[in-house]
């Protein structure tokens, strides 16, 4: 896991500047090793939309509250 690098993390949804409260961990199995996790951040409003986007493609691996992600051991 590990810390998110932005000082004030914001939502990854296009045009959204809201504070992020969720981490969507994902990978593209055609490009990434199975253990690799890329992350998108989501506000409360966009969590479901971004999760569906990744889920339909089979990319979504986990959805975790940002606070839990940042406090998890690396």
TrEMBL record:
Protein name per the record: Acetone carboxylase
Organism: Streptomyces bikiniensis
